[in-house]
Amino acid sequence: MSGDAAMLWPRVAEGLRRDLGARTFDHWLKPVGFADYCALSGVVTLETQSRFSANWINERFGDRLELAWRQHLPGVRGVTVRGGAAASDRATALSAQPLPAFEPPQPAANPALLGFDPRLSFDRFVVARSNILAANAARRMAMIETPQFNPLYLCSGTGQGKTHLLQAIAQDFAALHPTANIILMSAEKFMLEFVGAMRGGDMMAFKARLRAADLLLLDDLQFVIGKNSTQEELLHTIDDLMTAGKRLVVTADRPPAMLDGVEARLLSRLSGGLVADIEAPEDDLRERIIRQRLAAMPMVDVPDAVVAYLVKHFTRNIRELEGALNKLLAYAALTGTTIDLALAEDRLAENVRSARPRITIDEIQRAVCAHYRLDKAEMASKRRVRAVARPRQVAMYLAKELTPRSYPEIGRRFGGRDHSTVIHAVRTVEALRVTDSELDAEIAAIRRSLNN
Predict the structure, then answer these.
(1) Average pLDDT over residues 74-101
(2) What pTM was estimated for this model as a whole?
(3) What domains, with CATH codes, occur in the chain?
C-alpha cells in the first residue's frame, strides 16, 4: 500500500503547485519527498532534509496537504512532514555512506517573513473590476522602483482581501529586496506596543524599531481611532518614514475622511498618497474564486448548480464565500457524501442566514427619508420641527436596533449629535410604539423596505 501511495505523490504535488502557486510550492514543497503511508492509521509521512522546513510546512500547510492527499487516497486521515534527524535516519538505513553536510534552507533572506502566510500571494489574488485598482497599486508598492504613490491606503469592508494584499506586498518586496526590514502589524498591536513601551520606559527602542522599517504595513487602522497619544506617535512615525523615502501601506474598513475621531494632520498624511477602495465582489469575481479553488482539486466533483448557489447567496465578502465552500468540502470529504445542491442547501442554511447583507445607517436614513418624503440632509440638520425631528428619532431608533453601532457612533452620523440625544430618541420611540399604532405601523413598513 505504501508503494501505491508513493506513486500518487507526484500527482498530489502537482495539484498543490497549482493551488499554492509556483513560487510558494517551489520554495517550500518541491524539496519534500514521500516517505511512508500507514494504511492502519491513515497517516502519510513526507520528509525533507531540514527540521526547520519540516516544522514550517507542518504548521503552514498541514491541513492543505491532508486535503490534497485525501482527494487521491480517501483513507488518509493525517499528513506529517519529518526533517533533520528523522529524514537522515532513513537515508542512512538505505546507504552505509554518511550524509554530506547540509545547509538548511531559509524561507527568505528577510527573517520577518516567518510571520507571513505563503498562501496569501499575488498569484492567488483574483483580480476583477471591484479590486483592480487596489491590486495594481499593491503590486507597484512591492516593486524595486520607487512607487508613484506613497502611502498606499487600502479600504474595504471585512473579508474583501485587504490583508491578503498586505501579505502579498510583504512577500514580493522581500523577494526583490532581500536585506529589507519589513514590519507588518495590526494597528491594534501598534497601539498595545506603544502603550507598553510608555509604561516600561522603552519608547526609544519602540521608535527606533519602527523608523528602521523599509516597509511598514499597518492593518485595520480603524481600531486606533480616538486614541490621541497613539495617533500622535503614528503621525510622527509616518512623517519620519516618508521623509526617509520608506514605504507605508495602511488598511481600514472605511476611507480616511470617514474615520471619526482622527486628527486632521493624520488624515492628511493618510490621504496624501493613494486611497484605493476594494468594492463588494461582483458575481463574476466570486465565481472565479470558487473555480480557482476547485481547479486545484480535480478529484472533487462540485456541480455547476452548487457553484451558482454559492455565488448567489454569499455576496458580502470573499471570506464568507470561501468559508462556505470549505465547510461543504470538509463535510463531503469526512462523511463520504456526494456534493449536490440538496447537500449545499442543507449544510449551508445557517451560513446563508448569517451572510445576508447587513443594514447600514446610511440605508436606514435613506429609507426613513423616502417614507416621510424628506431630504436626507435633514438627518444631520439642526431643525427641530416635529415633521423633521420625529423621523430623525425613528432613524436613530432603527440604527440602534438594526446595526451594531454604538450610541456615540450613531450620534456622529446624525450631524455630530451627543450620545445622550440618541439614547433619548431610542427611548422615546420605544415608548411611542406601545401607544401610537400609526407610528408602530410606519416603523414596521420601513423595516420591511430595508429587509427587501
Answers:
(1) 55
(2) 0.59
(3) 2-94 (3.30.300.180), 113-277 (3.40.50.300), 283-354 (1.10.8.60), 361-451 (1.10.1750.10)
